[in-house]
Amino acid sequence: MDQQYMTPPTSFRLADMAQGAYDMPLMAMKKPHDSHPSMGNLVLLVFEAVLEVVCVSLPGYVVARMGHFDADKQKFLANLNVMLFTPCLIFTKLASQLNADKLLDLAVIPIIFVIQTLVSWLVSVGVSRLFGFNRRASNFVTAMGVFGNSNSLPISMILSLSQTIKGLHWDKIPGDNDDEVGARGILYLLIFQQLGQLVRWSWGYHVLLAPKDKYPEYQDERVEEGQYAGDRETAPLLNEYDDGAAASRRSSSDDLSNYEPAGRTPVASRSRASPADTDDEDDDNFPKKARTTNALAPLNGNHPVFDGSGDEISSFPRILNTDEPDVPEGVKGYPARFNNAVVSAKRSTSNFVKRQYEHLPAPVKTVLSALGRFAGKLYNFLWEFMNPPLWAMLIAVVVASVPALQKIFFEEGSFVKNSFTDAVQSSAGVAVPLILVVLGANLARNTQKSDKQRDPEEDQIGTKLLVASLVCRMLLPTLIMTPVLAIFAKYVPVSILDDPIFVIVCFLLTGAPSALQLAQICQINEVYEGVMSRILFQSYVIWILPSTLILVMCALEVVEWAA
Fold first, then answer.
1. Lowest mean pLDDT segment, chosen from 170-174, 263-267, 392-396, 553-557
2. Which of the two ends of the chain, N or C, has the fewest CB atoms closer than 10 A to its terminal CB?
3. Cβ proximity of 191 and 111 under 8 Å
4. Is the pLDDT of residue 297 over 50?
5. How do the domains of the chain map onto residue ranges?
6. Do residues 539 and 474 touch, judged by C-beta distance below 8 A?
7. Which tens digit of pLDDT belongs to each residue from 534-562?
């Protein structure tokens, strides 16, 4: 009776093949693009990320249109952001997320970054030659093409995609979830971002977006502008004596800075502003008792009368008598005594070193002299080349490389974390919103330079610069890097390339719009500011939606193909 339920023995291979043949049509109907979101959902994700940037930028635009946010205030905030908030952002992001182990695992990121930068540079050079740009315009196009946005827009996109797209979990991480995917994506973006910051604030700030007077072909023009500026500077002589005296001191200080009367030590050329400023600066080195001056009013309105103290003489640099500096008695004299002791110790140390140097053999003197010249040149180079973001990056790498230091700064509950680190993190949160607010104000046409202040070269080639910059940043690099990234993801045996979110990060950075911080640098160095505003408007308002859609779809196709 039970034999009707018995079947002849069958090999597992044949049974599995038969079951697979039955399920194959259903699998074929289900597999294609199962991990992809619908086109409508993807459009919504991209639109949300773009709208976030627009919402933060809009108040700056509105305030600028109301006349409360002119170009000078924008430049001030851009400088403030570079000097304070951006270094805080770099330090907190880099020092808290990195460590020695992660630096080894993420070693492939600098390779991809170098390839992307090289491709963008070659494309920019070719397009610039095609348009016939000069050196300054070519450097501007290169900066727009090389430095893409790796902060605000990509971060928003990665966080949105990690929560909504299926199939981004990494099979090499047990229990991987959407939050872990988003955290890894932010880490990858962080590495790319800091590499971009390093190149942006070094090569970009000092070379590609250098001020106009750094180019030899513009020297004559700048000299003429300087002469006119000097004429305007001496104009107050006709109005007020005080302003005229200040202008006279500024114009004559260069010629008289080397004047050295017997028995006196002239003040260096750094004291240029006014008698009050000079007194303050002199007091830093040799504090003296407060002096009172009785400046009498001019008798006939033309020639002022001096009291003979010499404090109101504007034709000669300030002469400082350091023979017997007066030091206040008691507690008030402590800072002055300490300052004098430091100066005396420096002088004694310098004299001791010189005496020891004179007793050395000639070959040793030669070597030490060469080393001293090299150290001096290196010191001068670092102080001219380095800027606050680069210093913050250097300090962050040091902190991240030393576990004990990283623990001191970022361990929850520690004194340094609750005081210093939290303060730095609070300042860091201002950097990106402030960039976007200034960007919105920069897009308001009423805050741009007037026709008299505008660079005539910008009016001649502004449209060409706009087209070339957009092509070099958002079109050609994507066409070239798409097959390169696909080959890397498929065939290069590096574990991180198997992470789907890493591939998406690489694609988003390949065709992302120009970095928002370029607007800061252009405002600071006065480089094609009007064209920069047009580039940002075209990139972040008009072309961002279709460009990001194409990048995300290409990334998802590569992830599926390489799996």
1. 263-267
2. N
3. no
4. no
5. 49-222+388-446+454-562
6. yes
7. 898 888 888 888 888 888 888 888 988 88
Residue 148: φ, ψ to 5°: -95, 165
The length of the chain in residues reads 563
Separation of alpha carbons 202 and 216, rounded Å: 20
pLDDT tens, residue by residue, 217-245: 776 655 555 544 444 333 343 344 344 44
Which residues make Cβ contacts (< 8 Å) with residue 45, sequence separation at least 6? 37, 157, 160, 161, 164
* DSSP annotation of 82: I
Q: Tell me the pLDDT of the chain averaged across its residues.
A: 75
Closest CA to 203 of 34, 385, 417: 385
Q: Do 114 and 481 contact (CB within 8 A), yes or no?
A: no
Residues paired with residue 320 on neighbouring β-strands, in sequence order? 265
For residues 536 and 516, the answer to whether their CB atoms sit within 8 Å is yes
Q: How many CB atoms lie within 10 A of CB 240?
A: 10
Residue 320, helix vs strand vs coil: strand
**Identity of the residue numbered 237:** L
Structure tokens belonging to residue 196:
């971009």
Poorest-pLDDT segment among 26-40, 84-98, 254-268: 254-268
- Amino acid letter at 419? S
3-state secondary structure of 509: helix
552 close to 157: Cβ distance less than 8 angstroms: yes
Q: Which helix (H) or strand (E) holds 266?
A: strand 265-266
Q: Shortest CA distance to 513 belongs to which of 189, 192, 150?
A: 150
**CATH number for the domain formed by residue range(s) 49-222+388-446+454-562:** 1.20.1530
Residues 6+ positions from 475 with CB-CB distance below 8 Å: 511
Do the beta carbons of residue 140 and residue 209 sit within 8 Å?
yes
Q: Which residue has the tokens 């990106």?
A: 432
The reported pLDDT for the residue numbered 408 is: 92
Nearest residue to 50 via CA among 540, 514, 550: 540
Q: What is the rounded (10 degree) CA torsion for 49, 54, 57, 63?
A: -160
CA angle 101, 178, 155 (to 5 degrees): 75
Q: Which residue has the tokens 């120009």?
A: 514
Q: Please, which residues bridge with residue 148 across strands?
A: 514
Kindly list the distances between the CA atom of residue 397 and the CA atoms of 356, 407, 485, in Å, as whole numbers in the listed order. 38, 14, 28
Nearest by Cα to 552 from 514, 503, 493: 503
Instruction: Report pLDDT for 469.
Output: 95
Q: For residue 246, which of 335, 313, 178 has the smallest C-alpha distance? A: 313
Contact status, residue 111 vs residue 488, Cβ threshold 8 Å: no
Is pTM beyond 0.70? Reply is: no
Structure tokens at 53: 């940037």
Query: In which element (H, E) is residue 319 found?
Result: strand 319-320
Token pair recorded at residue 438: 């200034």
Phi, psi for residue 270 in degrees, rounded to 5 = -75, -20
The tokens for 363 are 């070959």
